[in-house]
Design brief:
The protein has helices at about 1-15, 20-35, 40-55, 60-70, 75-85, 90-105, 110-120, 125-140, 140-155, 160-170, 175-185, 195-205, 210-220, 230-240, 245-255, 260-275, 275-290, 295-305, 310-325, 330-340, 345-365, 370-375, 385-390. With about 400 residues, the chain is mainly alpha-helical. Among the domains are: about 1-105, Tetratricopeptide repeat domain (Serine Threonine Protein Phosphatase 5, Tetratricopeptide repeat, Alpha Horseshoe); about 290-390, Serine Threonine Protein Phosphatase 5, Tetratricopeptide repeat. Helix 4 packs antiparallel against helix 5 and helix 11 (about 175-185) runs antiparallel to helix 12 (about 195-205). It is globular. The model is unreliable at about 1-10 and about 370-390 (pLDDT under 50).
Length: about 400
Amino acid sequence: MIQILLALIFTTALFQDPAIVRQSEAHFARGVEMQQKGDLQGARDAYEAALKLIPQRIDALTNLGVIYARLGNYEQAVKNYKAALALDSSEQNIRLNLGIAYFQMDRFDLAETELSRVAQSQPNNMQAKLLLGTCLFSLGKMKDAITILEPVYASFPKDISVAYILANSYLHNEQIEQGQQLVDTVFKSLNSAESHLIIGTLYTMRRELQPAVDELLQATVLNPKLPTAHSQLGVVYLMSGNRELAVKAFQAELTINPNDFIANTRLGWIYREDGKLEEGEKLLKRALELRPNDPGPMFQLAQLVNAQGKPEEAVTLLEGVIKQLPNYSPAHVLLARIYFKLKRNDDARREQAIIEKLRIEEQQKQPTVESQKLSDPKNRAIKDPLLKQPER
């Protein structure tokens, strides 16, 4: 790779004044020296000076991206990494840096794209795979996250961070047995906030609500800023019927972790029901930014904008929900009502026919012995409707 970079630099240099090339090289060398000494501002200025003279320097663009990332300016880091990749799209280390920058910005959808390309090009790059698995988990793609993370955990069975994300992915994908095995193997002997969060999540999925509350409260005591701990506690409070404590938990999560999908969605739903439409709209739109086209917040937002007197916007959202969940009756019911309101009678009658068809299909379903067993709360995993299907 160094040879390629040098070739590109020297090729560009053929069309430059030798004095300009020497000056650019001097600025770049000073940038490297400053970077090694920890003078990030000085390194940034030196790399920018080198690029001002020769803009198509992959080495300077890449190093400048690293400097901006270390300064916390991820937007500028992304800009420089993308400029470097425009010159050489095969350089996977730069692409990895780009994926990490998107990850730090909570742009998990964009990070997934870049990290997937790195993982495909470098199958043994476990850092890329761990980050990719974490992105997939954050996007609610639990099955895909498990596929990526299982071989990583097999290679690094003592890595707590890998076990943590994999266990969470198992539990949220309703693979309770696999999640239980990881909890027993890795986390039960630990007294960390993360271990209490994992165990609390396991109790939640098994609908053992009081033990779940106890574990999650312990997690928040040990680390009040642990991401998702307050959010998961809010979910359990909602399941217990304690709406007031749920609201406080979701608000606490958003104070420390404003990009938590569940807290944005659940609190937005509660605000919608309480008539706080402006506050709810902001949260639900943020949830959709985090997970574009997720049907849970999409359905909640459709109801909210309809209540605001925006039926056309509600129709667009509901049609998006139905595209992903064609058998979700509440979306068809609301869509039919709005179609009638908009004088789109043919569309409304089509929705009514679908509603009747779904009703008949539901009536024809006969419970099997296995489904009766699963109806027992002791045997049933909890399906989070905001991850699997929209809330009413």
